[in-house]
Specification:
alpha/beta; Rossmann fold
Length: 260
């Protein structure tokens, strides 16, 4: 991230700007930075001005407590202004939920594309998310960042053996460093259920994309977004998982952003 702007509350935000054409802001998900979506940015830059950024509390961006989802919406407002005054948004996972919230708030957004926003459409999902919120809040309040990361990885469905393996990996320190922002993504997700009233307020085209090899509940959650948004559409990418291949995703996004 080689550029910086200041959000409304004074928080410095690091971002990059690449390519030429209509602006597209890329919103990363939990445990991610702008570098996570940089490969996708590179594949869209031949047709669009692409803006990946470090969300507050991550990477080279600053942070200003106390956190509120509204502050992240203001961050996107600042980025859209820096990009020229209007933009399309793309968000992956909980970043998709943030992009949808921003669009519903009335920001100058042309289109919104999301990849697998993890809303809890399965039986017992709301209770599981509430339990996760309690455990996460307690772990972070007590400074147990490693435990907070473990709670998140369990929520994603990662096996215990893989979680314990991750604890021994070189990237674990980086994961603990960013762990406080898990509370931010948890707040963005709300109660974890599909935010139907918020989605109904979005007046621009919405593309919801899921991987054909992802769990059924993620595909169902993504489809629910498309069916609830007034101008929603749904796509499945065959053989893709939550770790979607930018080479597969980019053409679908480019078609959507160029055609609406």
């Amino acid at each position: 991230m080689d550029k910086q702007i200041t959000s409304r509350d004074g928080t410095p935000l690091a971002y990059a700007r690449t390519g030429q054409g209509p602006a597209v802001v890329l919103v990363s998900g939990a445990m991610s930075t702008g570098a996570t979506v940089a490969p996708l940015a590179a594949r869209l830059a031949d047709r669009f001005t692409v803006v990946p950024y470090d969300r507050r509390g991550r990477g080279a961006s600053g942070d200003t407590p106390p956190y509120a989802v509204a502050r992240e919406v203001e961050d996107l407002a600042a980025l859209i202004e820096a990009a020229g005054g209007d933009a399309a948004l793309y968000g992956i996972s909980s970043g998709g939920a943030l992009a949808l919230t921003a669009a519903a708030s009335g920001l100058p957004v042309r289109q919104v594309a999301v990849y697998e926003p993890p809303f809890a459409v399965y039986e017992g999902g709301a209770e599981e998310r509430a339990r996760y919120t309690r455990n996460l809040t307690e772990a972070l309040a007590q400074g147990r960042r490693g435990d907070a990361v473990e709670h998140f990885l369990r929520l994603t469905g990662l096996a215990e053996t893989m979680i314990q393996g991750a604890r021994q990996s070189p990237i674990w320190a980086d994961m603990e460093a960013i762990a406080p922002t898990l509370a931010y993504d948890d707040a963005v997700m709300g109660d974890g259920l599909v935010p139907r009233e918020r989605l109904a307020a979005i007046t621009v085209p919405v593309l919801a994309v899921a991987g054909g090899a992802s769990p059924a509940w993620l595909r169902e959650a993504t489809r629910a977004v498309a069916e609830t948004a007034p101008e929603g559409s749904y796509r499945t990418l065959e053989d893709q998982t939550h770790m979607v291949d930018p080479d597969v995703l980019a053409p679908v996004l480019a078609e959507f952003f160029a055609g609406s």
